[in-house]
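stuck on this chain:
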Amino acid sequence: MAKMKKKTQSAIDSVARYAEKLGKQLSKRSKKSKGKTAKHAADLASKLVGLQKEAFDATFKVIARVQKRSDQVVKDHVGKSTWMPDEGKEAVHEWSRTLEAGRAEFQETVGKSYDLALAYFERLKKGQPAPKKKAAPKKRAAPKKKTAPKRKATPKKKAAPKRKATPKKTIAKKTTAGKTTPKRKAAPKKRA
């Protein structure tokens, strides 16, 4: 649910940014044309957004009815099924509740976005500037951690001289049956 809320909030923010951008373009154009045309353009944009909102609401109501009906059919079928365990039935019911909540939240988010756009165009019609937002306070940098002073590099030690390899002796090993096994190389003797 937290991810869904973040996504819906980001959708609201993106629509608000888009409306603000659109409003800036409209205000630039309206300053050029002055007076009546600016109000006319804002009125036209407001009517278009209102029309889109009504179309969305009507379409979404139909989608909601279809979803509720199909949800009811699935619940009835799952309730009557003897082959499905109780955990599975509960999972289907939880899935149904999640879909319902997601649909309602989506509809609410889109409705808020349309309301923001309509409010913006209403302000433009009246010639009011957009309300200024307070700047977010600057975050202070975290204090620097104290570090130990750097040590001087120690001189590198010389590598030990390489030894020459000595040939390994082979020893035959006797088994309990008196047979000899293949010869293995003996370990070299250690030098002192």
